[in-house]
Write the structure tokens for this entry.
Amino acid sequence: MTQKSHIMPGFRPAISFTLFYLCLVVLIPLSTLVFKSLQLSWADYINIISHKRVVASFQVSFVTALIAAVIASIFGFIIAWVLVRYPFPGKRLLDALIDLPFALPTAVAGIVLATIYQPSGLIGKLLMDYFGVQVAYQPLGIVVALIFISIPFVVRTVEPVLQEFDTKMEEAASSLGANRLQVFVKIIFPNIFPALLTGFALAFARGVGEYGSVIFIAGNLPYVSEIVPLLIVTKLEQYDYAGATVIALTMLMISFLLLLVINLLQRWVRKRSGQL
Amino acid sequence: MKLITFFTLPLLALSLLLSSTVYADRTLLNVSYDPTRELYQDFNQAFIKYWKEKTGETIEIQQSHGGAGKQARAVIDGLEADVVTLALSYDIDQISERAGLLPKDWQTQLPNNSVPYTSTIVFLVRKGNPKGIKNWDDLVKDGVSVITPNPKTSGGARYNYLAAWAFGQKQGGSQDAAKEFVKKMYKNVPVLDSGARGSTTTFIQRAIGDVLITWENEAFLAIKEFGDDKLEIVVPPVSILAETPVAVVDKIVKKNGTQDLAEAYLQYLYTPVGQKLAAKHYYRPYQPEYADSGDVKRFPKIELFTVNEQFGGWQKAQATHFADDGLFDQIVAGK
């Protein structure tokens, strides 16, 4: 036998399919982006990217996505915990509700959230009257929309890990005299943390790229509440294809870097907690 | 189960295909801007009937609406529009310039510079006009919240901006005064939507802002939809003439074999029927004598200036005001 065959059957068709799919759906479209931006000189590129308005929109996008991902991670963890650990009536219904943001067109989510959180809306009025906080048409509105769309990512990544989690470890810890807090901090949390990190990364990535729901609630004011995807669309509508491509490419690179860092962090955490 | 889907799916697809081809002999796509939906729904019905009577051919007309910039870009990117009916000539110029789909002199092909109907910019305020808004300078006062779309993406918003600019220039006597005036106005803007319809929604459904700067036809339509017990129209003494041009997209109609149809379609806009429908849908007709006098009476007398008079044409206005780092960018950057 000259050819080395793989120990698992079906390796070749599977890998060819994977590569084919990646090329068709991910790599070719993304490389078009790179090629298109290569038409510009380096100086033009820097000029477009360092424009104050562009920088401001990057700040808005990444800061709101970060805040939203942190909040979604905390709440998502609590929801997953409740769904896994406690039996209660209507649990299945609640479980199904979690996925709704996946299915709902994001524009619908944005319109609904804007209606409720606008200063004269159902929740917006309460917040305005009692706390003097305006949510819709402020960067805060963007955070609210992003939390809404990103919570399922966290719940659905943490949930299976919690389910798999062996309660014997907890029992052992308690029998050795650990109190509840200690069990949670030292046993449960470190085991869940990598999954939570994945959920966070997904939520963050989704938040940075989200367009549909945000534009309805953001106010879209340059320098204040203009997100990067909106700026890309605006550039396109001004027939500025090169500008749009450059911004998109930069966004892609930053997101890729951030996700890479989170991935590495995850590996490191896993190694430390002995999961790898 | 599998066998059934195996056979029914292609059958279904085939029948769908057949039904659409049997239904209409030819299809025309009209790519238009945001607030013309209602006008063209009516007009298309009228034209389909007219064409059927004249030639016996059954046709179908599809409409596409959105911010004028977005629509023009879609055509440049390959949306096969047989005709475009957009908010301002600059966007059709761009289709000609960037995609070469129509000749440079497209505007000479139809009467009145290819503008079958016009509109202008007015204010929509809440019932009783609580902030007492009468004229453009009321929009820059402290505590007045103004709703207008983003001029970079919306044709209507560009008219809003230019009208305010012209007022500021007349009042202050210089370009700098005009810039200061417009800057003050945009300080009062809490939300920038990407199109005119979005701003209308923000103003009416979200109850944001004291005044909406908008198309005259959009203001009338809003009153018709939401009632005059909630809103009223304020007409400033001076405003801008919005010349909304139409054009046959040459290359596409030649390819689709729809040239005669597309030309007849746009010419029909200039006939008594077309003019009457335009006036009915609150557009100022090119030849008001064809429209119902009741409809024409609704348009208030107002001093109108054109983009050509005040700004030396759209190309120039676009380059000075709306290009990147142009005056609008400087204004929102607070410079």
DSSP finds 16 helices and eleven strands in chain B.
